[in-house]
TrEMBL record:
Entry protein name: Helix-turn-helix transcriptional regulator
Pfam families in UniProt: HTH_5 (PF01022)
Example of a GO MF term: DNA-binding transcription factor activity
PROSITE patterns membership: HTH_ARSR_2
Length: 115
């Protein structure tokens, strides 16, 4: 997975993967982690571009959170953009549903137990 480059103190724009290019194993691996599932569920309940990376209630540090978002971008689930000092997110529900019909609905209506 490509890493973000730092250029003169500015972070590079995040790299996004088109959901049409994602394998089912990549998608399932991305959603199998409880932290990433929590991120998806919180994004699903929020309007597009309203949630910054630091606004999620997950039990991981900043570096781990960045990794989780990179995995979700790589699976075509999340799109991110920078707004000033904040990086905001949206769930790519329509695009992901076109690639894997019903998968997000199943994940979002499942009980909180992933194990």
């Amino acid at each position: 997975m490509p890493k973000q480059a730092e250029h003169g103190g500015h972070r590079a724009a995040p790299v996004h993967t088109d959901p049409a290019q994602v394998s089912v194993l990549t998608a399932l691996s991305a959603v199998a982690d409880p932290v990433r599932l929590q991120l998806i569920r919180e994004l699903a309940g929020s309007a597009d571009w309203t949630r910054s990376c630091g606004s999620f209630d997950v039990p991981v540090g900043k570096a781990a959170l960045s990794h989780h978002f990179a995995v979700l971008r790589g699976a075509g689930l999340v799109e991110q953009r920078d707004e000033g000092a904040r990086r905001v997110n949206r769930l790519r529900r329509e695009e992901f549903d076109a690639r894997f019909p019903g998968l997000l609905d199943l994940l979002l209506r499942a009980d909180g137990d992933t194990g």
